[in-house]
Amino acid sequence: MIRQRIQQIRRKVPRPSHGVLRRWCGRLCLLSLFFSVGCFDSLPGKPTEADRYKRPDTVMDFHTLYKTNCSGCHGADGTMGPAPPLNDPLFLAICSDADIKQIVMHGRDNTPMPAMDHKTSGPLTEKQINAIVAGIRAEWGKTPPQLSPPFPTYQLAETPGDAQAGKKVFSQYCATCHGKDGQGDTAGALNDAGFLGTISNQALRRIIITGRSDLGMPNYHAIGDDSLEGKPLTSQQITDLVALLAEWRTADVGGNE
Question: What average pLDDT does the chain have?
Fold first, then answer.
């Protein structure tokens, strides 16, 4: 009797079709997948966007580019590196963005500064080089130099200087620190072909103009204030000094190491 009653009830209850069951199973699977993805998204250890791998040629952040490509020579904050500082208001006042870009792209002949343009097997695209130049200007070019223009010209003169005239300028402006013949004194020797072989004439001119404040070397104006002449170096005097140093580069008069 009871069995018959159960069978009657079963016959009255509608059974879902196979199509309905498949649809419900599909919905349950999708719902489970949705929640599982949401849970995995918040699991500890998942890399953040900043941690994700980026192709080197897609990096455009100035600080990342500078740290990777420039800081080893020019210093973490643009100073105190073996290469001349980039964090220098006077340098940024006399050197245009176009000049800086050319240096980064093509490097410096006869110096450790390499060409960074990927077209010459360097690591950087032109867009990345533009980002570095703009970043240098934005980061370190905000403070104007504590001098009034006109400044000596940055680029080398088309006409080479006079080394003999440079000797006179050297004795008046440079010998106090670098020695009478450039052999070194309170500052290092300059008549060392080993040193001069690692620095171009253009870089020499730049350093004479800007000095290296991070290492205690005064700029062209401060040198003049402390010199026998009592006035800043002129652009022509700087040209003549570079000619003298270039002569020492090939002659090597034997300064102290």
Answer: 86
